Description:
The protein has helices spanning 12-20, 60-66, 107-112, 126-129, 142-148, 195-204, and strands spanning 3-6, 24-27, 46-49, 52-55, 71-74, 92-94, 97-100, 117-120, 130-133, 136-139, 153-156, 162-163, 176-179, 182-185, 208-211, 217-218, 224-225. The protein is of the alpha/beta class. It has a single domain, classed as L-arginine/glycine Amidinotransferase, Chain A, CATH 3.75.10.
Amino acid sequence: MSYMILDPRADGKIFENAEKLGFTVIPADYIKGIDETVAGHPDMQLVKIGQALVVNPVSLEYYRKAMKGVNFISGKRAVQGKYPEYVAYNIALAGKTAIHNFKYTDETVKKLLKGFNLINVKQGYTKCSVCTLPGGIITSDRGVAESCEGKIDVLKIRQGGITLYGKDYGFIGGTSGYADGKLYFTGNVKLHSDYEKIKKFCEKKCIEIVCLSNDKLADIGSIIII
């Protein structure tokens, strides 16, 4: 069984189309007390490392009840407070490369990243900003792109063309999720101004693009598949 974790506020069409593809869709926990924009974003609460899911300790029981047969590991840092206090699990993992502002990374996650190529960046919202693929990333964040150049394959795209609840625009990482040779998007990536670049980048890596709706891309805190 494959689970897909999505922000509970995501458009119903995204849920429906994910289920048609055979996923069991799990609405992410809603974390009260942090920025409302990201309170339901799964990439703020958990990170998949290998086949393990490291989870914000406050949300651990919620996910244990919702998903069976998953290797859960409790993180140490609770998701709370103000930015950047709550970004402990917002790490971008592309194969064996981990990208984050490691000043704020959860201690349990750090231990599990031994053996990974670590790229430290200033951006705390790292996974939000980065679409991750095996051996490559797509981002509009100039600082992240510059830090990763020469260390991993980077596609730099233009900012904009993505909606985000409560904000003027969102980011490509929050619209996407990779699993088993397919890159899933919350909306129709063909509507993005840099679609042709994204398409060629994926084709180079033999990755199929799957759109979960025909609407504009929406940043919902990533699509996490396990």
